[in-house]
Amino acid sequence: xxxxxxxxxxxxxxVTCQVGDPxxxxxxxxxxxxxxxxxxxxxxxxxQDYQNGVHNYDLQDAITFVGSNTFYIDTVKPTKDSVYLGSxxxxxxxxxxxxxxxxxxxxxxxxxxxxxxxxSVHIRATEPVA
Length: 130
What we know:
The protein is built from no helices and 11 strands. By secondary structure, it is mainly β. The strands form 2 sheets. Strands 3, 5, 6, 8, 10 and 11 form a 6-stranded mixed sheet that branches. Strand 5 and strand 6 form a beta hairpin.
């Protein structure tokens, strides 16, 4: 589950926020399997989609994370969840997206690391209301 500014997000919803206001971000990973899973790394990467196949990830002047954009998850037991909280601060107006990726963080395997990517979250940063 992904919540931006307290609102549940999926690929069909655009969350609107104001430039200059910290936007709370919550990602909850629930283990619905019968076995413990982990370790994982959760990485959040903001980008702009120019609608021509180009994604701009060079946004350090437009967005900043309050805290880290990477979280490490040791183990999630069956039917339990793990919640990660952070905040985004938008410095300019525009339409932004957030890639959220989980990848296995277990180097003892002989197989390549596997990735699980959630649908991108669409966030629209608008001018503050006077």
